[in-house]
Amino acid sequence: MAEDSDLERTEQASPKRLEKAREEGDVPRSRELATCSVLFATGLSLLMMGSHLNQALKTTMAAGLHFDRTVAFEPILLLTKISDMISSLLLAFAPFALILIAVAIASPVIIGGWVFSGKAFVPQFGRLDPMQGLGNLFSKNSVVELIKSIAKTLLVAAVAYTVISHDMAPILSLSLLPLKTSISQVSDLMLMGFLSIVSALVFIAAIDVPYQLYQYANKLKMTKEEVRQESRESEGNPEIKARIRQQQREMAKRRMMSEIPKADVVITNPTHYAVAIKYQDEGMSAPIVVAKGADIVALKIREIAAENNVVTMEAPKLARALFAHSELGSEIPEALYSAVAEVLAYVFQMRIFKKEGGFRPEIPKELPVPETLDPHSLIPAPSIDEMEVFV
């Protein structure tokens, strides 16, 4: 059952899969939206520019039917006249053509965006397989396209019948009108009827666009095994990554241990935690934590500190607060400045005492550590894994 579930395409396509499909030119497209947009743009353009185009056609036709003797007997002048007529006609229809070209280019990319891929031009001989062709003929997509075509035909026919029925009286009265008036009426009736029929295609496009998006997303769905494989390819083998993380922890641990001899003091719990603090008057605005650890790591910090004559001081509450609220290599929290200052003052006084003698400084007691920073009652003793995270 687990193997069957891994083979089922139940997972949404990953960004990498979507990008790969896009590179191959596979993006969602709606032919109904493109067709509807172009036809609608045609009708609106004719509605706005119809009189201008009509006048251009009349002028060109009148010029073409008018000849004089010079042009009739001079082939060069005749060709020049024909060229001028064609140029003026093309110039008049240029805005109309540009609008249709722009809509024809823009409408297919509304839902899928603009994409160009050379892979679409590579021959795919698998498409020549007759069995695959028969399979596509009776596929779910073919059935949907058939239903969509039938619905589109019925809808357009119903709208056309409604429009013609509504305009039947004006159509029948055209024969009684003067020629010029009847031609104008026919143009208006045909244009409005065309726009009404095309408007029906908006309903088809409104259904087709969500369906195409759904079908595209469903087609690119992935199995759970494909998701795992892609994760391995993009992020690397988990075992190798775990090994790298282990090596990084070891390197960080070695770097941390090498900083302990440079510390001024190691503050301990005394057994569970150890935090090494360093402070210099020049270049430091506050003491920094050069090493910290729990349990085994804390023991190692104390051993290195003893080998290098670094002062070790027991201050359980302060050690717990520093361990929980300070980052390795960063300054201590501002709330612990006073407590750490008393510890460092004791350490520096001990150095003077050992060199010059005098009164032995007293170990500070009751350090001012805020209760809210002491995690003693909030955080259980860390495990070895947690200890490594802190490292």
Describe the structure.
This protein has 391 residues and is an alpha+beta fold. Helix content is 64%, strand content 7%. The chain has 15 helices and six strands. The strands form two sheets. Strands 5-4-3-6 form a four-stranded mixed sheet, with helices on both faces. A two-stranded antiparallel ribbon has the order 1-2. Strand 3 (265-268) and strand 4 form a beta hairpin. The radius of gyration is 42 Å and the shape is elongated.
Q: What are the segments in which pLDDT stays under 50 over at least 5 consecutive residues?
A: 381-391
H and E string: HEHHHHHHHHEHHEEEHEHHH
Count of β-strands: 6
The residue fraction in helices comes out at: 55-70%
Helix tally?
A: 15
C-alpha geometry? elongated
Q: Quick one: biggest sheet?
A: 4 strands, mixed
Which whole number gives the mean pLDDT? 78
Specify the structural class: alpha+beta
Measured by DSSP, the beta-strand proportion falls in 5-15%
Determine the N-to-C terminus distance: 43 Å
